[in-house]
Task: inverse folding
């Protein structure tokens, strides 16, 4: 038996669990009360108390499309030529990226479907489709039985896409009701498959700007589109309150089901927040969305699953990442990895079961392949070098040409306040060579 299959047998529950991955959009740790946020989030707090809350989880990128690519494929998104948010064909060319995720790429839903799972995608996709990209593969090409997409997908659902844009005042389901609509579709899918394990990606588009918590908070835009009236802390708090309520509805619906099959729910963010409101939304971490500093990639992650995930845990030691979810969830489900597949992540399912495994592989990130097509965060000190690596407690940021190296001990200095490259030149040289070499290996 291979080491992976042995680990899968040891980690897998007796009955393959349902798995729901709830992906919030641009959510920072300071947006959730149990991570220190000011807005009450009682349902997420209860989820954390009934499960395990992780404090060292990293998104695969500091922006949506490559982060989602890393989660789906278990590989660094640069391998699949996704480097920024997917947009128009001209914009994608300017970023040096593809127009959509290659359907031949490894796919977590496809691997779980091969193991007997019913699979669905609900909500934001942003891995191809929308704008002038009309030939993106449909959800079935990635292994989904059902797809309920938003506008930035190959199959936008008519309930939430009345206009040729992300949202509009004409949508049947209004901007402030979208999370509830997505939760309803998820619960419906679980109910429709009582005799099979289910895998659902429930990818919310909250709390991404614009923050439109009610009809009074929107105003008309061009071509029938609508816009928000301003992204204020008060509007953010109301959006967070509704998102938290809908996560509570999801968990209540799962709790109420009479089934011998457990359900594991992962709640995570795709990247850091923007705006950060003077780093309150990052709990003091440097950087934001669009930055490789901790505030751009270190985000909340809560695992919940009565009968599988132990209650009341806080894991402050295990370093997890979006690229780990593919091998981790396959192990939890007892599903073999695809033949010939080489994940960049690793199986850390033991962490979901209450243990504190140590990471073996380094993590790599990139953002900012040129100075013209990549919007970078405005605040002074938040714009990072364009490549980064974390190995153990060390994190090094460096430009792809080898200049501008910065070294931090992020275990002791999570706010990246003190560059210690000069004090540890051997570590800085080793990690700079590792990061630059990795960047050069990408397409």
Result:
């Amino acid at each position: 038996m291979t080491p992976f299959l042995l680990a899968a047998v040891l980690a897998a529950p007796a009955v393959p669990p349902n798995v729901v991955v709830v992906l919030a959009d641009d959510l920072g740790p300071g947006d959730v009360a149990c991570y220190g946020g000011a807005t009450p989030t009682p349902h997420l707090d209860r989820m954390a108390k009934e499960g395990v809350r992780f404090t060292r989880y990293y998104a695969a990128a500091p922006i949506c499309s490559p982060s989602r690519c890393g989660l789906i494929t278990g590989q660094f998104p640069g391998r699949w030529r996704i480097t920024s948010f997917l947009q128009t064909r001209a914009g994608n060319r300017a970023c040096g990226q593809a127009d959509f995720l290659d359907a031949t790429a490894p796919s977590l839903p496809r691997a779980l479907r091969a193991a007997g799972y019913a699979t669905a995608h609900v909500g934001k996709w942003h891995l191809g489709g929308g704008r002038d990209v009309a030939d993106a593969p449909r959800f079935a090409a990635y292994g989904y039985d059902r797809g309920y997409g938003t506008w930035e997908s190959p199959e936008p659902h008519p309930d939430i896409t009345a206009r040729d844009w992300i949202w509009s005042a004409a949508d049947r389901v209004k901007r402030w009701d979208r999370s509830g609509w997505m939760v309803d579709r998820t619960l419906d899918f679980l109910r429709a498959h009582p005799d099979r394990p289910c895998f659902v990606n429930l990818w919310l588009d909250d709390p991404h700007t614009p923050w439109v918590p009610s009809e009074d908070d929107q105003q008309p835009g061009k071509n029938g589109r609508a816009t928000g009236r301003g992204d204020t802390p008060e509007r953010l708090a109301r959006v967070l309150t509704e998102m938290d309520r809908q996560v509570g509805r999801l968990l209540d619906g799962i709790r109420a089901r009479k089934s011998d099959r457990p359900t594991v729910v992962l709640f995570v963010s795709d990247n850091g927040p923007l705006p950060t409101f003077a780093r309150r939304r990052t709990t003091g971490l440097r950087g934001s969305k669009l930055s490789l500093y901790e505030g751009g990639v270190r985000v909340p992650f809560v695992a919940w699953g009565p009968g599988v995930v132990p209650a009341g845990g806080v894991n402050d030691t295990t370093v997890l990442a979006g690229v780990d979810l593919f091998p981790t969830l396959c192990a939890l489900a007892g599903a073999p990895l695809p033949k010939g597949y080489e994940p960049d992540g690793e199986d850390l399912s033991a962490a979901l079961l209450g243990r504190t495994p140590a990471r073996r592989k380094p993590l790599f990130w990139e953002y900012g392949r040129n100075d013209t097509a990549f919007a970078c965060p405005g605040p002074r000190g938040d714009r990072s070098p364009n490549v980064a690596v974390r190995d153990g407690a060390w994190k090094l940021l460096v430009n792809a040409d080898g200049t501008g190296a910065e070294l931090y001990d992020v275990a002791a200095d999570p706010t990246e306040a003190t560059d210690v490259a000069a004090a540890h030149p051997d570590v800085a040289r080793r990690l700079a060579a590792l990061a630059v070499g990795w960047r050069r290996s990408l397409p």
